[in-house]
Amino acid sequence: MTDFREAVIDLDAVQANVVRLRSLIGTRHTMAVVKANGYGHGAAPVARAALAGGADWLGVADISEALVLRAAGINAPLLAWLHGPDADFAAAIAADIDLGLSSALQLRQVAEAATVLGRPAFVQIKLETGLNRNGVDEADWAEVLGLAAAFERVGRLRVRGVFSHLANTSAEDDLTAIASFDRGLAAAAAAGLTVDLAHLASTAAALRLPAARYNMVRLGIGIYGQSPFDDQDAAALGLTAAMTLRGRVAAVRQVNAGAGVSYDYLWRATADTTLALVPLGYADGVPRQAMNTARVAINGSQYPVVGRVAMDQFVVDVDSDSVTVGDVVVLFGDAAAGVPTAAEWGAAAGTINYDIVTRVGARVPRRYVGTLAENTDAGAPGVPGADPTETAEA
Ligand SMILES: *Cc1c(COP(=O)(O)O)cnc(C)c1O
């Protein structure tokens, strides 16, 4: 039974996607990236499914996201790499969370927190190799890596890895970054560090640039069954979309030619037609920009979104087809099901599939399905919103 609005998350698909990606990529280690509430899918259930598929590391941006996973009972190796000036490094160290660090200041703060706690921190040094976000600049590698080695020698921390992140701009730019990263690995060795992990690639480079794989890749979008590429879709990669966003038709009405629809009348019926009201809006992550371009599936056919997407609802033109209140409306899901994809919604809204799945709002209950669902804290499979802590966190 489909809810009024719901995001159905197929955990078996996540597991199978990890298995598939690992078979294509073949690195010794695989990090599943579950930041931003698992790209909107729910961090803890996705993390468990990814681990079941063979991932041996989890990655998130913030320490707070890492702590949520620990609180959910997930004990797998876990890295958090984006920290504000007041980051709670002590809480991270106490919870066995590896810290991705981008400056000498952060290293000193972590070493200090480790000293207070009386146990070493595990850190991974982020090197700047061309993306120009965070990471240690090449000019500072010797100093920062040397400082890390000094802290390691006195037992305050262990440098477990060195990593960076690619711009995915072109193969040429990424190869330049790879060359830079190789110099960084040499600098780490010269500083006396022996790192277990070297990682650079996210899904795109992991698939297309073998030189970027090192001994671990960080897979985000691919594990959710979405393609990072414009020119190769998820099906072509052998991936299955894990999220289906759907709801039930809330109202149906006949209108005459010329009738305006939704705010500002930015669409008018060119002929007598039937309109169906879909109870998801921009509060639920439906992009307002998708007006008059995106499509939804109802009873096996696809229909255009017409007029403004409102906060809670939007309208589709079903022409003369027979649609009834309560019929299931699928906004996006796996292409094999004959429904639009998140990538198509992204194209319609001038954005990307990453944005479409991640933005699904907190008001949309996540319903977990698949054989793994019963093993999660999401409650019994097929029971919508069985666990309010899962559903409230989007
Ligand atoms: C988000 C992120 C990833 C995952 O990227 P995908 O393109 O989703 O695979 C990997 N590494 C870092 C540092 C990230 O921020």
Automatic annotation (TrEMBL):
Pathway: Amino-acid biosynthesis; D-alanine biosynthesis; D-alanine from L-alanine: step 1/1. It catalyses: L-alanine = D-alanine. Substrate binds at residues 133, 311. PROSITE patterns: ALANINE_RACEMASE (PS00395). Residues 242-369 form the Alanine racemase C-terminal domain. The modification N6-(pyridoxal phosphate)lysine is found at residue 35. Catalyzes the interconversion of L-alanine and D-alanine. May also act on other amino acids. HAMAP family: Ala_racemase. This is Alanine racemase. It comes from Cryobacterium lactosi. The lineage of its organism: Bacteria, Bacillati, Actinomycetota, Actinomycetes, Micrococcales.
